[in-house]
Amino acid sequence: MIQFYAPDIATDPVLPEGESLHCVKVLRMQPGEAVEVIDGKGRAYSCTLMSAHHKHALLRVDSSVERPLPWSYRLTVAVAPTKHLDRMEWLVEKLTEVGVNEFIPALCDRSERRELKTERLEKIAVSAMKQSLKAVMPAIRPMTPLRRIIEECTSAARFICYCDRETDRRVLAREIAPNTDTTILIGPEGDFSPAEVELALARGFVAVTLGDNRLRTETAALFAASTVHVINQLK
Question: Rounded to two decimals, what is the model's pTM?
Answer without folding.
Answer: 0.92
